[in-house]
Amino acid sequence: xxxxxxxxxxxxxxxxxxxxxxxxxxxxxxxxxxxxxxxxxxxxxxxxxxxxxxxxxxxxxxxxxxxxxxxxxxxxxxxxxxxxxxxxxxxx
Length: 92
Prior knowledge:
This protein is an all-alpha fold. It contains two helices and no strands. 80% of the residues lie in helices and 0% in strands. The radius of gyration is 21 Å and the shape is elongated. InterPro entries: ATPase_put.
């Protein structure tokens, strides 16, 4: 394998890891906050339900933002790659 291929592969693994963390961390932070509310302030266990829903919402939001950044980066690479090519409708 060439160095460029290895670098590309490592970049893809990093994006998968970032996506995994962006899905997991908001949910865990919301559940940790719910745990602290239940143990320290003696709030009922019903707090876990809205905490779980809010954690999932945060996870979806951050995953969507990661998705948009990946799409934007790929479009930018495609424009850089295609800038030298001449198409039927692009003469100059």
